[in-house]
Amino acid sequence: MKRLPKINTALPGPRASKLIKLDGTYVSPSYTRGYPLVAERGTGAWVEDVDGNSFLDFTSGIAVCATGHCHPEVVKAIRHQAEKLLHMSGTDFYYTSQIALAEKLALLAPGNDSKKVYFGNSGAEAVEAALKLARWRTNRELNLAFFGAFHGRTMGALSLTASKAIQKRHYNPLVPGITHVPYAYCYRCAYNLRYPSCDLACVRWFEDTLFRTTIPPEEVAAIFVEPIQGEGGYIVPPPEFHRELYKTARKYGILYVVDEVQSGMGRTGKMFAMEHFEVDPDMMTLAKGIASGLPLGALVAKSDIMEWEAGSHASTFGGNPVSCEAAMKTIELLEQGLVENAATQGAYLIEGLKQLQKEWECMGDVRGKGLMVAVELVKDRETKEPAKSWRNDIIMAAFRKGLLLLGCGENSIRFCPALIVNSHEIDTCLSIFSEAVKEVVAS
Ligand SMILES: Cc1ncc(COP(=O)(O)O)c(C=O)c1O
Fold first, then answer.
1. Ligand 1 atom index nearest CA of 152
2. Mean model confidence pLDDT for the chain
3. Which residues in 232-371 belong to E strands, given as ranges?
4. FRET label pair with 386: which of 58, 96, 280, 316, CA 20 to 30 Å apart?
5. pLDDT tens digits for 155-172?
Protein backbone atom coordinates (compact mmCIF):
# COMPACT_ATOMS: atom_id res chain seq x y z
CA MET A 1 0.00 0.00 0.00
CA LYS A 2 1.19 3.52 -0.78
CA ARG A 3 2.36 5.32 2.32
CA LEU A 4 0.78 8.59 3.43
CA PRO A 5 1.66 10.92 6.33
CA LYS A 6 -0.05 10.05 9.61
CA ILE A 7 -0.50 12.65 12.33
CA ASN A 8 -1.99 11.16 15.50
CA THR A 9 -1.34 13.91 18.05
CA ALA A 10 -1.42 17.67 18.33
CA LEU A 11 1.96 19.00 17.16
CA PRO A 12 4.22 18.94 19.01
CA GLY A 13 2.95 15.77 20.72
CA PRO A 14 3.44 15.07 24.43
CA ARG A 15 6.91 13.46 24.19
CA ALA A 16 8.11 16.05 21.67
CA SER A 17 6.90 18.87 23.94
CA LYS A 18 8.89 17.51 26.89
CA LEU A 19 12.04 17.11 24.80
CA ILE A 20 11.76 20.59 23.31
CA LYS A 21 11.55 22.01 26.83
CA LEU A 22 14.67 20.09 27.84
CA ASP A 23 16.43 21.22 24.67
CA GLY A 24 15.65 24.81 25.67
CA THR A 25 17.51 24.23 28.92
CA TYR A 26 20.61 22.54 27.56
CA VAL A 27 21.08 23.14 23.85
CA SER A 28 22.54 26.27 22.24
CA PRO A 29 19.77 28.75 21.40
CA SER A 30 21.64 29.76 18.22
CA TYR A 31 19.94 27.03 16.15
CA THR A 32 17.05 28.03 13.89
CA ARG A 33 14.25 25.50 14.29
CA GLY A 34 11.34 26.46 12.03
CA TYR A 35 8.86 23.98 13.51
CA PRO A 36 8.76 21.53 16.42
CA LEU A 37 9.77 18.25 14.79
CA VAL A 38 11.53 15.87 17.16
CA ALA A 39 12.74 13.04 14.94
CA GLU A 40 13.00 9.48 16.21
CA ARG A 41 13.64 7.36 13.12
CA GLY A 42 13.73 7.65 9.37
CA THR A 43 13.47 5.40 6.36
CA GLY A 44 13.61 6.46 2.71
CA ALA A 45 11.74 9.75 2.34
CA TRP A 46 9.88 9.30 5.64
CA VAL A 47 10.54 10.46 9.19
CA GLU A 48 8.73 9.38 12.34
CA ASP A 49 8.70 11.65 15.37
CA VAL A 50 8.92 10.64 19.05
CA ASP A 51 5.12 10.50 19.32
CA GLY A 52 4.72 8.11 16.40
CA ASN A 53 3.64 10.74 13.85
CA SER A 54 4.83 9.99 10.33
CA PHE A 55 6.03 12.76 7.99
CA LEU A 56 6.95 12.87 4.31
CA ASP A 57 10.38 14.51 4.33
CA PHE A 58 11.10 16.97 1.51
CA THR A 59 14.09 18.40 3.41
CA SER A 60 16.24 15.25 3.69
CA GLY A 61 17.94 16.82 6.72
CA ILE A 62 18.91 19.98 4.75
CA ALA A 63 19.77 18.15 1.52
CA VAL A 64 21.98 15.61 3.27
CA CYS A 65 20.31 12.19 3.20
CA ALA A 66 20.91 11.73 -0.54
CA THR A 67 20.09 8.03 -0.54
CA GLY A 68 17.16 8.47 1.84
CA HIS A 69 17.08 7.99 5.59
CA CYS A 70 19.04 4.93 6.70
CA HIS A 71 19.47 3.33 3.29
CA PRO A 72 20.06 -0.34 4.20
CA GLU A 73 23.19 -0.63 2.04
CA VAL A 74 24.71 2.53 3.51
CA VAL A 75 23.92 1.31 7.03
CA LYS A 76 25.52 -2.05 6.19
CA ALA A 77 28.68 -0.35 4.88
CA ILE A 78 28.85 1.80 8.02
CA ARG A 79 28.41 -1.24 10.28
CA HIS A 80 31.04 -3.20 8.42
CA GLN A 81 33.62 -0.41 8.67
CA ALA A 82 32.72 0.36 12.30
CA GLU A 83 33.61 -3.21 13.25
CA LYS A 84 36.97 -2.92 11.48
CA LEU A 85 38.40 0.54 12.14
CA LEU A 86 36.62 3.56 13.61
CA HIS A 87 39.43 6.06 13.47
CA MET A 88 43.11 6.42 12.80
CA SER A 89 43.43 10.03 11.55
CA GLY A 90 44.35 10.68 7.96
CA THR A 91 46.48 13.59 9.18
CA ASP A 92 49.20 11.28 10.50
CA PHE A 93 48.43 7.84 9.05
CA TYR A 94 47.18 6.14 5.90
CA TYR A 95 44.09 3.92 5.60
CA THR A 96 42.33 2.27 2.68
CA SER A 97 38.92 4.00 2.75
CA GLN A 98 40.31 7.54 2.60
CA ILE A 99 42.63 6.71 -0.31
CA ALA A 100 39.84 4.90 -2.18
CA LEU A 101 37.39 7.78 -1.74
CA ALA A 102 39.98 10.37 -2.81
CA GLU A 103 40.62 8.36 -5.98
CA LYS A 104 36.88 8.06 -6.65
CA LEU A 105 36.20 11.79 -6.19
CA ALA A 106 39.26 12.81 -8.20
CA LEU A 107 38.09 10.67 -11.12
CA LEU A 108 34.45 11.78 -10.83
CA ALA A 109 35.15 15.53 -10.68
CA PRO A 110 34.44 17.44 -13.91
CA GLY A 111 37.32 17.98 -16.34
CA ASN A 112 40.34 16.01 -17.55
CA ASP A 113 42.98 17.55 -15.28
CA SER A 114 44.23 15.31 -12.51
CA LYS A 115 42.83 16.16 -9.08
CA LYS A 116 43.70 15.78 -5.39
CA VAL A 117 41.36 15.71 -2.41
CA TYR A 118 41.53 17.24 1.08
CA PHE A 119 39.08 15.90 3.68
CA GLY A 120 37.29 17.72 6.51
CA ASN A 121 34.07 17.07 8.41
CA SER A 122 31.63 19.64 7.05
CA GLY A 123 30.83 22.07 4.28
CA ALA A 124 32.35 24.97 6.18
CA GLU A 125 35.61 23.05 6.65
CA ALA A 126 35.78 22.28 2.94
CA VAL A 127 35.26 25.98 2.13
CA GLU A 128 37.78 27.00 4.78
CA ALA A 129 40.33 24.71 3.16
CA ALA A 130 39.59 26.23 -0.27
CA LEU A 131 40.06 29.77 1.07
CA LYS A 132 43.39 28.82 2.63
CA LEU A 133 44.58 26.91 -0.44
CA ALA A 134 43.64 29.84 -2.73
CA ARG A 135 45.78 32.15 -0.64
CA TRP A 136 48.61 29.62 -0.30
CA ARG A 137 48.73 28.89 -4.01
CA THR A 138 48.31 32.40 -5.46
CA ASN A 139 49.88 34.57 -2.77
CA ARG A 140 47.01 36.99 -3.43
CA GLU A 141 45.02 38.58 -0.62
CA LEU A 142 41.62 39.41 -2.15
CA ASN A 143 38.63 37.16 -2.87
CA LEU A 144 35.24 37.64 -4.46
CA ALA A 145 31.93 36.04 -3.46
CA PHE A 146 28.24 36.76 -4.07
CA PHE A 147 25.37 38.41 -2.26
CA GLY A 148 22.97 35.69 -1.17
CA ALA A 149 25.80 33.15 -0.91
CA PHE A 150 26.02 30.71 1.96
CA HIS A 151 29.40 29.06 2.44
CA GLY A 152 29.26 28.15 6.15
CA ARG A 153 29.71 29.69 9.56
CA THR A 154 33.35 29.27 10.63
CA MET A 155 35.20 32.60 10.47
CA GLY A 156 36.69 32.15 6.99
CA ALA A 157 33.58 30.58 5.46
CA LEU A 158 31.40 33.16 7.21
CA SER A 159 33.46 35.92 5.63
CA LEU A 160 32.45 34.55 2.21
CA THR A 161 28.81 34.11 3.27
CA ALA A 162 26.40 36.97 2.48
CA SER A 163 23.05 35.37 3.14
CA LYS A 164 21.56 36.94 6.27
CA ALA A 165 22.98 39.77 8.39
CA ILE A 166 22.14 37.86 11.60
CA GLN A 167 24.75 35.26 10.63
CA LYS A 168 27.44 37.98 10.84
CA ARG A 169 26.10 40.19 13.65
CA HIS A 170 28.64 40.60 16.50
CA TYR A 171 31.34 38.63 14.63
CA ASN A 172 33.25 41.42 12.91
CA PRO A 173 36.04 41.82 12.03
CA LEU A 174 36.04 38.80 9.73
CA VAL A 175 38.66 37.72 7.19
CA PRO A 176 39.64 40.87 5.30
CA GLY A 177 39.79 41.34 1.54
CA ILE A 178 36.47 39.71 0.58
CA THR A 179 34.13 41.66 -1.71
CA HIS A 180 30.56 40.55 -2.46
CA VAL A 181 28.96 41.14 -5.83
CA PRO A 182 25.43 40.54 -7.22
CA TYR A 183 24.54 36.98 -8.30
CA ALA A 184 22.70 36.17 -11.53
CA TYR A 185 19.28 36.30 -9.86
CA CYS A 186 17.20 36.87 -12.98
CA TYR A 187 13.85 36.99 -11.19
CA ARG A 188 15.16 40.04 -9.30
CA CYS A 189 17.98 41.30 -11.52
CA ALA A 190 20.28 43.67 -9.64
CA TYR A 191 20.66 45.71 -12.83
CA ASN A 192 16.93 45.77 -13.63
CA LEU A 193 17.52 43.97 -16.92
CA ARG A 194 15.99 40.90 -18.53
CA TYR A 195 17.70 37.76 -19.73
CA PRO A 196 18.76 37.25 -22.52
CA SER A 197 18.63 40.86 -23.73
CA CYS A 198 20.77 41.78 -20.67
CA ASP A 199 23.73 40.23 -22.49
CA LEU A 200 24.93 38.97 -19.09
CA ALA A 201 25.51 42.43 -17.64
CA CYS A 202 26.18 40.73 -14.27
CA VAL A 203 29.34 39.14 -15.71
CA ARG A 204 30.44 42.12 -17.81
CA TRP A 205 30.20 44.28 -14.68
CA PHE A 206 33.31 42.57 -13.28
CA GLU A 207 35.54 44.06 -15.96
CA ASP A 208 33.50 47.15 -16.81
CA THR A 209 33.15 48.36 -13.24
CA LEU A 210 34.65 46.27 -10.45
CA PHE A 211 38.13 45.68 -11.87
CA ARG A 212 38.27 49.23 -13.25
CA THR A 213 37.30 51.03 -10.06
CA THR A 214 37.97 49.18 -6.81
CA ILE A 215 39.46 45.71 -7.18
CA PRO A 216 42.77 45.16 -8.98
CA PRO A 217 42.13 41.75 -10.58
CA GLU A 218 45.77 40.68 -10.30
CA GLU A 219 45.34 40.81 -6.51
CA VAL A 220 42.30 38.48 -6.50
CA ALA A 221 43.03 34.89 -5.44
CA ALA A 222 39.64 33.34 -6.17
CA ILE A 223 35.99 33.76 -7.04
CA PHE A 224 33.85 31.63 -4.71
CA VAL A 225 30.53 30.75 -6.29
CA GLU A 226 27.68 28.29 -5.85
CA PRO A 227 26.70 26.69 -9.19
CA ILE A 228 23.07 27.17 -8.11
CA GLN A 229 22.69 29.43 -5.12
CA GLY A 230 21.33 27.31 -2.24
CA GLU A 231 20.42 28.99 1.04
CA GLY A 232 20.03 32.22 -0.96
CA GLY A 233 16.89 30.84 -2.65
CA TYR A 234 17.79 27.95 -5.00
CA ILE A 235 18.63 30.45 -7.70
CA VAL A 236 19.57 28.98 -11.07
CA PRO A 237 21.76 31.34 -13.13
CA PRO A 238 21.48 31.54 -16.94
CA PRO A 239 23.25 28.73 -18.84
CA GLU A 240 26.21 30.91 -19.92
CA PHE A 241 26.79 32.61 -16.56
CA HIS A 242 29.52 30.33 -15.21
CA ARG A 243 31.21 29.87 -18.57
CA GLU A 244 31.55 33.62 -19.09
CA LEU A 245 32.57 34.34 -15.52
CA TYR A 246 35.11 31.52 -15.63
CA LYS A 247 36.61 33.07 -18.80
CA THR A 248 36.95 36.40 -16.98
CA ALA A 249 38.60 34.68 -14.01
CA ARG A 250 41.03 32.84 -16.33
CA LYS A 251 42.06 36.07 -18.00
CA TYR A 252 43.40 37.43 -14.69
CA GLY A 253 44.73 34.20 -13.16
CA ILE A 254 41.87 34.12 -10.63
CA LEU A 255 40.91 30.66 -9.34
CA TYR A 256 37.30 29.52 -9.89
CA VAL A 257 36.10 27.83 -6.72
CA VAL A 258 32.65 26.25 -6.90
CA ASP A 259 30.79 25.39 -3.74
CA GLU A 260 28.86 22.20 -4.50
CA VAL A 261 28.12 21.50 -0.84
CA GLN A 262 24.37 21.71 -1.42
CA SER A 263 24.09 21.24 -5.20
CA GLY A 264 26.52 18.33 -5.55
CA MET A 265 26.28 14.55 -5.28
CA GLY A 266 23.50 13.99 -7.79
CA ARG A 267 20.97 16.43 -6.38
CA THR A 268 20.49 18.41 -9.60
CA GLY A 269 20.22 15.36 -11.85
CA LYS A 270 23.94 15.36 -12.64
CA MET A 271 26.64 14.21 -10.24
CA PHE A 272 27.81 17.83 -9.86
CA ALA A 273 25.66 20.86 -10.71
CA MET A 274 28.60 22.44 -12.52
CA GLU A 275 28.17 19.80 -15.24
CA HIS A 276 25.01 21.66 -16.32
CA PHE A 277 27.18 24.70 -17.00
CA GLU A 278 30.09 22.96 -18.71
CA VAL A 279 32.83 24.51 -16.61
CA ASP A 280 35.67 22.52 -15.04
CA PRO A 281 36.36 24.44 -11.85
CA ASP A 282 39.81 24.83 -10.28
CA MET A 283 38.44 23.74 -6.92
CA MET A 284 35.17 22.20 -5.79
CA THR A 285 33.83 21.85 -2.25
CA LEU A 286 31.58 18.95 -1.24
CA ALA A 287 29.76 17.88 1.93
CA LYS A 288 26.04 17.40 2.82
CA GLY A 289 24.85 14.55 0.53
CA ILE A 290 28.28 12.99 0.09
CA ALA A 291 27.94 10.42 2.89
CA SER A 292 24.14 10.12 3.26
CA GLY A 293 24.17 11.66 6.74
CA LEU A 294 27.61 10.97 8.17
CA PRO A 295 29.81 14.04 8.66
CA LEU A 296 32.25 14.51 5.79
CA GLY A 297 33.53 17.44 3.75
CA ALA A 298 35.89 17.37 0.81
CA LEU A 299 37.86 19.86 -1.25
CA VAL A 300 38.67 18.55 -4.72
CA ALA A 301 41.30 20.66 -6.51
CA LYS A 302 43.35 20.37 -9.65
CA SER A 303 46.61 18.64 -8.70
CA ASP A 304 48.76 21.56 -9.81
CA ILE A 305 46.78 23.79 -7.44
CA MET A 306 46.75 21.48 -4.42
CA GLU A 307 50.50 21.76 -3.98
CA TRP A 308 50.72 22.96 -0.39
CA GLU A 309 53.43 21.52 1.80
CA ALA A 310 53.03 18.93 4.57
CA GLY A 311 51.73 20.59 7.73
CA SER A 312 50.06 23.52 5.96
CA HIS A 313 46.52 22.21 6.57
CA ALA A 314 44.95 19.11 8.20
CA SER A 315 42.20 17.82 10.49
CA THR A 316 42.16 15.03 13.09
CA PHE A 317 38.75 13.63 12.12
CA GLY A 318 38.57 14.72 8.46
CA GLY A 319 37.96 11.76 6.14
CA ASN A 320 37.08 9.41 8.98
CA PRO A 321 37.01 5.79 7.71
CA VAL A 322 33.33 5.22 8.57
CA SER A 323 32.27 8.42 6.78
CA CYS A 324 34.46 7.47 3.79
CA GLU A 325 32.79 4.04 3.51
CA ALA A 326 29.35 5.68 3.75
CA ALA A 327 30.43 8.02 0.92
CA MET A 328 31.72 5.16 -1.25
CA LYS A 329 28.40 3.35 -0.92
CA THR A 330 26.45 6.59 -1.47
CA ILE A 331 28.36 7.26 -4.71
CA GLU A 332 27.79 3.67 -5.85
CA LEU A 333 24.03 4.08 -5.34
CA LEU A 334 24.05 7.46 -7.05
CA GLU A 335 25.81 5.96 -10.06
CA GLN A 336 23.44 3.00 -10.13
CA GLY A 337 20.37 5.15 -10.85
CA LEU A 338 19.76 7.77 -8.17
CA VAL A 339 21.25 10.64 -10.18
CA GLU A 340 18.96 9.67 -13.03
CA ASN A 341 16.03 9.42 -10.62
CA ALA A 342 16.81 12.94 -9.35
CA ALA A 343 16.57 14.22 -12.95
CA THR A 344 13.32 12.37 -13.70
CA GLN A 345 11.51 13.02 -10.43
CA GLY A 346 12.83 16.58 -10.32
CA ALA A 347 11.30 17.32 -13.73
CA TYR A 348 8.04 15.78 -12.52
CA LEU A 349 8.09 17.91 -9.36
CA ILE A 350 8.80 21.13 -11.28
CA GLU A 351 6.01 20.34 -13.75
CA GLY A 352 3.60 19.73 -10.84
CA LEU A 353 4.57 23.01 -9.18
CA LYS A 354 4.20 24.87 -12.49
CA GLN A 355 0.65 23.52 -12.73
CA LEU A 356 -0.05 24.80 -9.21
CA GLN A 357 1.50 28.14 -10.16
CA LYS A 358 -1.32 28.62 -12.70
CA GLU A 359 -3.77 28.37 -9.83
CA TRP A 360 -1.89 30.38 -7.17
CA GLU A 361 -0.88 33.97 -7.89
CA CYS A 362 1.43 33.90 -4.86
CA MET A 363 3.76 31.37 -6.53
CA GLY A 364 5.83 34.03 -8.24
CA ASP A 365 8.66 31.84 -9.50
CA VAL A 366 9.13 28.07 -9.76
CA ARG A 367 12.75 27.14 -10.45
CA GLY A 368 15.36 24.48 -9.99
CA LYS A 369 17.24 21.58 -11.48
CA GLY A 370 16.69 17.95 -10.56
CA LEU A 371 15.62 17.75 -6.92
CA MET A 372 16.96 21.19 -6.02
CA VAL A 373 13.68 23.02 -6.50
CA ALA A 374 12.13 26.17 -5.03
CA VAL A 375 9.01 28.27 -5.17
CA GLU A 376 9.38 31.98 -4.52
CA LEU A 377 6.29 33.44 -2.86
CA VAL A 378 5.07 36.93 -3.61
CA LYS A 379 2.11 39.04 -2.56
CA ASP A 380 1.62 40.22 -6.12
CA ARG A 381 3.03 38.86 -9.41
CA GLU A 382 3.51 42.37 -10.84
CA THR A 383 5.26 44.08 -7.92
CA LYS A 384 6.93 40.83 -6.75
CA GLU A 385 6.54 41.98 -3.15
CA PRO A 386 8.12 39.16 -1.09
CA ALA A 387 5.55 37.14 0.89
CA LYS A 388 7.78 36.21 3.80
CA SER A 389 5.11 35.56 6.41
CA TRP A 390 3.04 33.49 3.95
CA ARG A 391 6.17 31.48 3.25
CA ASN A 392 6.64 30.69 6.95
CA ASP A 393 2.93 30.01 7.46
CA ILE A 394 2.79 27.63 4.48
CA ILE A 395 5.77 25.65 5.81
CA MET A 396 4.03 25.44 9.21
CA ALA A 397 0.70 24.40 7.66
CA ALA A 398 2.47 21.70 5.62
CA PHE A 399 4.13 20.42 8.80
CA ARG A 400 0.76 20.09 10.54
CA LYS A 401 -0.43 18.07 7.54
CA GLY A 402 2.61 15.79 7.64
CA LEU A 403 4.95 17.30 5.02
CA LEU A 404 8.41 18.56 5.99
CA LEU A 405 9.62 21.59 4.02
CA LEU A 406 12.32 24.21 4.54
CA GLY A 407 12.61 27.84 3.57
CA CYS A 408 15.46 29.41 1.62
CA GLY A 409 16.17 33.00 0.69
CA GLU A 410 13.85 35.56 2.19
CA ASN A 411 10.57 34.27 0.81
CA SER A 412 11.14 30.93 -0.95
CA ILE A 413 10.36 27.34 -0.06
CA ARG A 414 12.79 24.65 -1.08
CA PHE A 415 11.96 21.09 -2.08
CA CYS A 416 15.02 18.89 -1.60
CA PRO A 417 13.84 15.33 -0.94
CA ALA A 418 16.13 12.32 -0.93
CA LEU A 419 17.17 11.15 -4.39
CA ILE A 420 15.22 7.90 -3.91
CA VAL A 421 11.90 9.80 -3.91
CA ASN A 422 9.18 8.32 -6.14
CA SER A 423 6.31 9.86 -8.09
CA HIS A 424 3.70 8.85 -5.51
CA GLU A 425 5.67 10.76 -2.87
CA ILE A 426 5.92 13.77 -5.18
CA ASP A 427 2.15 13.66 -5.81
CA THR A 428 1.59 13.52 -2.04
CA CYS A 429 3.93 16.48 -1.54
CA LEU A 430 2.18 18.52 -4.25
CA SER A 431 -1.24 17.77 -2.84
CA ILE A 432 -0.28 18.75 0.75
CA PHE A 433 1.61 21.82 -0.46
CA SER A 434 -1.43 22.95 -2.42
CA GLU A 435 -3.69 22.46 0.63
CA ALA A 436 -1.22 24.42 2.78
CA VAL A 437 -1.11 27.31 0.28
CA LYS A 438 -4.92 27.35 0.17
CA GLU A 439 -5.17 27.35 3.96
CA VAL A 440 -2.75 30.27 4.33
CA VAL A 441 -3.47 32.42 1.30
CA ALA A 442 -7.24 32.02 1.22
CA SER A 443 -7.57 32.83 4.94
C1 LIG B 1 26.61 25.87 -0.45
C2 LIG B 1 26.96 25.61 0.99
N3 LIG B 1 28.24 25.71 1.38
C4 LIG B 1 28.61 25.46 2.65
C5 LIG B 1 27.69 25.12 3.61
C6 LIG B 1 28.13 24.86 5.01
O7 LIG B 1 28.03 23.51 5.29
P8 LIG B 1 28.08 22.97 6.80
O9 LIG B 1 26.81 23.40 7.45
O10 LIG B 1 28.21 21.50 6.65
O11 LIG B 1 29.28 23.60 7.44
C12 LIG B 1 26.34 25.00 3.24
C13 LIG B 1 25.31 24.65 4.24
O14 LIG B 1 24.15 24.85 4.07
C15 LIG B 1 25.96 25.24 1.90
O16 LIG B 1 24.69 25.16 1.50
1. 6
2. 98
3. 255-259, 283-286, 297-302, 363-369
4. 58
5. 999 999 999 999 999 999
